[in-house]
Write a structure and sequence with these properties.
Number of helices of chain A: 3
Helix content of chain A: under 10%
Oligomer: heterodimer
Shape of chain B: elongated
Distance between the termini of chain A: 62 Å
Largest sheet of chain A: 21 strands, mixed
Low-confidence stretches of chain B: 1-52
Distance between the termini of chain B: 65 Å
Strand content of chain B: over 45%
Largest interface: A-B, 113 and 127 residues
Shape of chain A: elongated
Helix content of chain B: under 10%
Amino acid sequence: MRARTALIALLTAAPGVAAAQAVSAPVVSARPDKVAVVLYQDRAPSGSYADPQFRSADPGLAVVSETRTLDLPAGRSTVSFREVADGMVPQTAAIEGIGGKLVERNFDFDLLSPGTLIGKAIGAPARLVRTNPKTGEVTEAPVTVRSGPQGILLQHEDGAVEAVGCSGLPERLVFDAAPPGLTATPTLSAVVEVPRAGRYVVRLSYLATGLRWSADYVARLNVDGRTLDLQGWLTLSNLSRTSFADAPTQVVAGRLARAGDDTAPQAYQSHVLKTCWPIDFVPPPLPLPPVAAPAPPAAMAMARMSKLEEVVVTATRATVGDLGDYKLYSLNEPTTVAANQTKQVTFLAQGDVPYQRAYAYVAQTAYPGDPEQVIPVPVVLRIKNEKGGKLGKGLPGGVVTVFEPRPDGEPSLDGQPRLKDTPVGVPVELQAGLSSLVTVVADQEEQSSFQRADRTFSRSAVALTVRNAGAQPAPVEIRLAQSSFKIVKESRPHGRDGGFALWTLQVPAGGEASLSYRVEER
Amino acid sequence: MRWLCLVAAVSAAGAARAAEPARRPKPAGASVAAQPVSVAPRTAPSPPEEPKLDNQRLSITIYNGGQALVQDVRSLDLPAGRRRIELREVSNQIEPASVSLAAPDLAIVEQNFDFDLLTPSKLMEKAVGKQVQIVRTNPGNGQQVTETATVLAANGGVVLKIGDRIEVLRDDGAPTRVIFDGVPENLRARPTLSVTVDSTRAGRRDATLTYLTRGLNWHADYVAVFDEKASKLDFQGWITLINQTSTTFADVKTELVAGSPQSGGGFNPNPSPIRGVVRGGGETPSNANQVGDTYFYPLKEPTTIAANQQKQVGFIEADQVAAQRVYQFRTSAFQSQTSPSHVDSVLQFSNSRSGGLAAPLPAGVVRIYMRDADGALKLIGESAIGHTPQGSDLSLRTGEAFDVTVQPTAESEQTLDKRRNRHVMSYLVRNAKDQPVTVQLRQGTYLPELKVVEESIKSRRVDASEVEWAVPVPAGGETKLTFTVEESR
């Protein structure tokens, strides 16, 4: 069943009906009955999610779907949606299921703050309350606010004018009511029109920042040297101030195009500046913090700066399906993603996955100017990810922590390579660091140029010595990008791998092997 | 600081002409050159009359660049002769040079926009040479003593003359109140426009105040719900108005202009192409007004744009718009890759009459969703578009296809002569989806020309330097495209 979006263009609305006309008292939807969240993958290009630098580069993205019950009168009414996620991007809100007409929706970010309290009270009555610092006598005078919040002036009933906060006396302004239209948090509201009064169940969905997930893998190599155990975690992070309790949770793997402006408008916080006339001994007031960019709330700043946040590892598991061209992982049970919490859910646990260890070195056509360098050879672990094989799953990109068993059986960290988004059928290749046992020494034997058809081409001869200081024989692959070069002479015949010439050398334990080649530019 | 603004409403009048020819204010205000009068004429020392706002009729034209043209019609009851009037409730981000006031039988003598805001220190500066009341509270016994003082100076401290003593205010730190006997007329709590007018007759009449203001902006936000099985799109457009002024515009007739007026930046002979559009359209729209080379979108109902509010109203709804998803991979390099790259997933549709979405699309962000089994919306990508004329073909990249990849291999590369290089390339296209796909694979070059010598699939020429192959890939399978091309300069 497809719910049809109840969004009727204002242009087609009946003419002559003024928006402000006949709008009854606002209907307040205090909180959602149910919330479901879909988190999108972190976009950090590399590195670990735990690195705060990567976190701040990406505000995260989630789709929040809320079910709310509204009791609407017939005709037009304004609905205020409270308790929406604090990272809400208001222009993305969609309200479905009203069945009538959605006239407009508003997002008010005129917040109730000391500054707006004064600013909106200009010309309005207030009371000035003073306490005599010695006698404790409290006096109260009816006044009218004449200016503020950048320096507050009051007018007494007799016309006399005074400033607040300049006399050195304990004094304060008291209002009878908060000005209308100001809210504690930015608020989404909608003007709706329904033909009949009644109870409506609506779905409010919107994009929100502050939530995201990443895939994290742990690969434990087994003692047999041929298989590994691979475990995959969905790491859900909520950096916002809103907790989602018992929410059906899904995550989307894959890279979405983003337009880059998914941010809430800056809430307008106004400060009171207690400026006075110049007073000799009083230090000048501190400059105002910029109003347009309020500092993040303390709790959030703390979470970003430190590692205070809680990490929860759950027994919940996730199952995978397709969402268009992405993968959609659904957690098998509703979960609570609390504010400033990181939660991990298993989506993959596969033992005895065969892998192949190889030493893969990409050789250069020339090693000019730096003879006899000792180069450590990168270690790669290759896993076949075929349908019907041990793995055979699409693997969302993430950091893989590779552990290798030590002789005593304790795991030792091998490296933390990053895996790209990998569909089934594409082999997995993990760079598990550089070997300190297998090394290459390159020696430039000749470098010259030659003429062909009025152009100068280069020619180079290189000798490589591969040494293995380990206790096991090492298979070493040497690749040479050869599309623009021709191998004219070589000490061993090469094979092909993609656009590369490939030599495979078995280097005995504690021994060495050599390879030399001469190339010419095509 | 109070500053005299010479009437320079030419730009405002010009913009008004573009916005609303029928309601264009008479340029009477604009043609009156202000006299550089040294003494502002005052007819009444009491605060001047503020026009009643009951009959205020507002209309706003908002441009994309954060600028808006406000037309404010107020009913003014004026006596004959010169009079200073104050117009409050104008935008606090008004551009003073753009203000014009036009009314029958009325000439503008001078107009001022007062930024001299009422603050305690301004009040003290204005009190120099005048008398104030000083109330001291004795910190020892709490007794209050009131004295009359003359303010001598307010420079880095207030110097007072009390009787025959000279003192500095609160030099001893003791609590001291200062009581002023009123507020000078030209200090205001809010930015205020004051105009001195010369009326040839007494009586009530409508005056049109026209000005430009900053702090109002708009853009479009679109929701496109893609149904892959039906190859259809449900499309909605919302106009998002943002009011960052501290002024609420109540019951205002609103009009939006797709485009920002040229604001002194000079003419750009090489404008950048419209984002997201692959073929610009030539259909005349039915839902927008066209004036000059610009579209105007009037909102049908008057609306209230509150201070610090973001407001959205719907303006387009079209269901069942024909749309298709294509997979694209483009490169201009001839290089091997050790690991595959994902292809782009692209949504294509048209805003032409035949496609079902017959409307020009003002610039904004299109958010593309799919529905899951429960009908819940799931975002699949976002794309920014420019002002898109009706009848255009749109091609919006939604993201990367997880299951469809391309791995290029440069098989060989050869320099034929000074002008030509020959490349043998192969592209392994893998599809892990459970249905077949076709990938539009484009090979370009950085040189002016590309020529196909040999190919495993028939190509289509895009232009002199780009060739496209439609590569079919079976479900769960792979296809290898190989070709030999020559690039030449």
